[in-house]
């Protein structure tokens, strides 16, 4: 096994074990045993459990970033609404496919209450969605797919929808997430106003 594949296996194993047992109850010994390497070999890659937790969080934040789901240049006047719906639904599907995602994100949210580094990264991730949606909506206005009004407010609404659905899914609530996302997008794209 190469260094890079061992490193990746450690992170993947940590992801699963942290989700199953929590940060506190998962030990370096447990991780080493699951990866089938010695503790010194594990310490060669990561100096502590905290370093695994930190690197893993950075990787998760990268994997859930706006640009992983929405590619602005792929949006046209003809496909804007449909593509915004389908790209947003990919986030929901990804979360539903990963049985560990909700549990580990709950761990990081709890950690964020004690450690401002983690809460800042969570906030940065949400800000990245808002910034991305602003750019996407401005692109939509430039190509004539949507009206050129309230891009920031609309972007914040979309970000709030994504984050709220993420939280509601984590609570196990069986809402109609696809219909909710579709309705939100259609309202925003077609210029629905709040009265």
UniProtKB/TrEMBL annotation:
Coiled coil: none annotated. Gene3D superfamilies: Tetracycline Repressor, domain 2. The keyword DNA-binding applies. Residues 27-46 bind DNA. InterPro entries: DNA-bd_HTH_TetR-type_CS, Homeodomain-like_sf, HTH-type_Tx_Regulator, HTH_TetR. The keyword GTP-binding does not apply. Residues 4-64 form the HTH tetR-type domain. Keywords: DNA-binding. It comes from Paenibacillus mendelii. Pfam families: TetR_N. This is TetR/AcrR family transcriptional regulator.
């Amino acid at each position: 096994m190469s260094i890079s594949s061992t490193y990746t296996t450690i992170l993947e194993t940590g992801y699963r074990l942290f989700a199953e047992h929590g940060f506190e109850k998962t030990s370096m010994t447990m991780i080493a045993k699951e990866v089938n390497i010695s503790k010194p070999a594990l310490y060669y890659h990561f100096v502590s459990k905290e370093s695994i937790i930190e690197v893993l969080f950075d990787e998760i934040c990268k994997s859930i970033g706006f640009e992983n789901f929405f590619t602005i240049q792929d949006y046209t006047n003809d496909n804007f609404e449909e593509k915004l719906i389908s790209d947003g639904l990919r986030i929901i599907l990804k979360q539903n496919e990963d049985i560990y995602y909700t549990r580990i994100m709950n761990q990081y949210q709890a950690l964020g209450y004690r450690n401002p580094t983690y809460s800042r990264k969570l906030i940065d991730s949400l800000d990245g969605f808002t910034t991305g949606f602003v750019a996407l909506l401005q692109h939509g206005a430039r190509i004539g797919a949507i009206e050129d009004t309230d891009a920031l407010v609309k972007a914040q609404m979309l970000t709030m929808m994504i984050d709220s659905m993420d939280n509601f899914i984590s609570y196990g609530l069986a809402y109609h997430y696809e219909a909710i996302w579709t309705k939100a997008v259609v309202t925003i794209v077609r210029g629905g106003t709040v009265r």
